[in-house]
Design goal:
heterodimer; A: alpha/beta; Rossmann fold; 8-stranded mixed β-sheet; 8 strands; 31% helix; B: alpha/beta; Rna Polymerase Sigma Factor, Chain: A; 11 helices; disordered N terminus
Chain lengths: 228, 397
Amino acid sequence: MSVDTLNIDPALVARVLELMSSHEATPNLNGRWQDQVILEVMPREVSVLDLGCGDGELLATLIRTLDIRGQGVELDPMAVLKSIDRGVPVLNLDLDCGLVDFADQSFDYVILESTLQTLKAPMAVLTEMLRIGRRGIVSFPNFGHWRVRFDLAMRGRMPMTRGLPYGWHDTPNIHLFTLADFYDWCGAHRVSVTEAYGLTDGRVHPLSAEDNLTAEEALLFLEGEPLP
Amino acid sequence: MSVDGPSHKPVHGPDHPQSVGHVVARKEVFFDGSEPLRLEAGGSLGPVEIEYETYGELSSRRDNAVFICHALTGDAHAAGWDAGPGGPLRDYRRDKPGWWDDVIGPGKPIDTRRFFVICANVVGSCYGSTGPMSVNPATGRPYGLSFPVVTVGDWARLHMMLLDRLGIDALYAAIGGSVGGQQALEMALGWPDRVRRLIVLSAGRRITAQGLGFNSVARHSIINDPYFNGGDYYGGEPPLMGLAAARMLAHITYLSEDSMGLKFGRRFQDKSGPEFTLTGVEFEVESYLKHQGESFVRRYDANSYLYITRAMDYYDAAVWGEGDLVKAAARIQARTLAVSFSSDWLFPPELCRELVSALCRAGRPATYVDIPSRYGHDAFLVETETVSRLIHSFLSN
């Protein structure tokens, strides 16, 4: 089967192959780059709900350095204990089983870092986060990245990258999507992306919808209650 | 809740470095002047004695007090060894330390090297605080059923007065399990500026209809014991059968189907098969419950059981918000840790979650953990390792 019959731009194929040949391995980043961005852009004394807060490191830092009102939610019991050790208020809940009863727009920010793609009902959680929060912050691995595309299209294998390090059988990522998919969803549901950052070759940069081929991971700030 | 507690764990003797050692309970007397205490349910009572124990030292800034609220049939003897066990109902203390000795002591999760720990008995009980077994000074005879109805709110208020006497303005933490958790919650709701941290284990805003049902059967069995005599039995034979049956029923509600299955299954007691007897003991579980009932009646007063279960029945934390739990929760200033246990069917996790939900809705920070456990309601005393870890961590910050 030729590339022409699939209506694929030969220039795109050439670009993927070029990227492929010019890259060795993705440089390793220490810690979560998303946390660094959030710490830099977050105003002082706001309220933050972190869905999937892990060991509570981000919230603890936000509470300590920016004097925010923080609340975490985490499923993993060991991570919950670490959050409590750090003095972070945390609810041991499964996001897929429904949150507790937070009031509408009761937090300035609701964070969902690297979690959306692991949920059984990502849309329900996304809708809930934008109901509870005045702004939402989501991060996710971009399934549209050229390395992912190459693995699947050329090698015929499920992709394994920095953001997607698991095998097909043990991955927690069950709802994979691309940056373009997510921008489409935002557009269709009148959710606006107010700020966006991407990770490319170990470098954090302002992101646009056009970076679907090159951004490995994305961090988006969202506003607006999604249309049904 | 069972102060008989889990018996499989090794206990420290009084000389162990992690034991608070021998302890002596103290008493404070309130309302011994002309004005009696006006109770929430409308009655009055005076004088009122409160028995309490303390462990550790109050700091010079008086900011390290941790108040422990005991459960249904508990007492002020939370840790260490009673220096003078014996006397009516207290003989059981010869063989075991206080009911939460696992958790309270030097180097334990509620560390008495750091905290001044107080545990006080509630009014209506039979462990030193004024109750139906106490002598009514007006008549010179035990109150019996002439003792007024008391509530969880009365318990909390009297214990706050005890803190006044001890010169403690604000608690570092109020902690309790089961109806003790409800009392701790009541303290945080009624005196928000006096409770800095709140730990509620296996409890919620109120008991369910099922819980009310269990309590009503327990009281029914006491009240209909042939020796009950309208609660006036102190001169003669007490209603032991009724009280034992009440405890046997209650004990089932503290366990779970799973834990009973594991502990006893359908095994026969000291025999390989049935004897086809209607009145004898056939199964291990029968023998165990019978033993629980028999040992309980040696350490508890039947009238107290009526008063304390009623207090539990009436309690609803939402009263502080005119029926709206969110409005009530908005009063709480304490940082709150709520813990439920998956197999608890007396205070199921949903009840705990309802409370946590109200805190969140009210914009209060909350920490909530649901611990997977097969031990039912008793889990808060049995799952010591997990509970200890949580309490230690929450109190550290």
